[in-house]
User: What shape does this take?
Amino acid sequence: MSNAAIFTDQTKCGNKGLSFDPRTKILLLIELDILLFLGRSLAYETSVFLFCTLILLVGGQNRTALKCAGMFLLFVLTEQLIQPYLANAFVSFVHFIVVVVRKVLPAFMLAKWLVATTEVSAFAAAMWKCQIPQSAIVTTSVIFRCFPTISEEWRAIQTAMKMRGIEFNLKNMVRRPSETIVYILVPLFISALNISDELAAAALCRGLDNPGTHTCMTQIRFRWYDIAFLLVVAFALVVICALNIGGYSL
Assistant: This one.
């Protein structure tokens, strides 16, 4: 059996910034997720968020970076405004939601950047280089491609239901919850099941289960900016861990 060739063109992702290695993106996502929960102050969270915004900007995701920056600013302002009224149970619940969403927003940004700027074939090629087991590569490749496909399916269902006056929004969820769930969420779940089966079959047809050596037209290697960002985040992680062990809370 001939070796399976994995073809990829990272410019198809719409990435006009630096083209990071898929392994760099995964490592940055893991390390920055850890950093997020090593500090509690607003200044610390803002610093991590700004660094994640910088990654998105140099990675070509300017629109996502600006949207998330606006959301982060809105959450900070909301927290400051409702701070004096935390005695109220409802306000306290809103405060909890705002803090939690703001906390995980940088992780969401990096995850979206990873999916939006990485072709599945490039991701699979990087995993082969890391000697990841074949079963794990096939599974993660299907999951990796599943999110954009489900997003497209969601938009199609939204368009079809909007023509019937059953758009998915807060008003319909309150006034007609059963119809909204039946006509929107149920088709989405069924589509997700079908999509997972189709993507798994497509992955096998493209040779992901081939035990031979896989090749890729895109050169999978670390560049100077991959190493620079990884070193900066690793250094920050070591320093923050050392400060926490020494009893200095950020």
In short: DSSP finds nine helices and two strands in the chain. The CA atoms of residues 138 and 204 lie 8 Å apart. The radius of gyration is 21 Å.
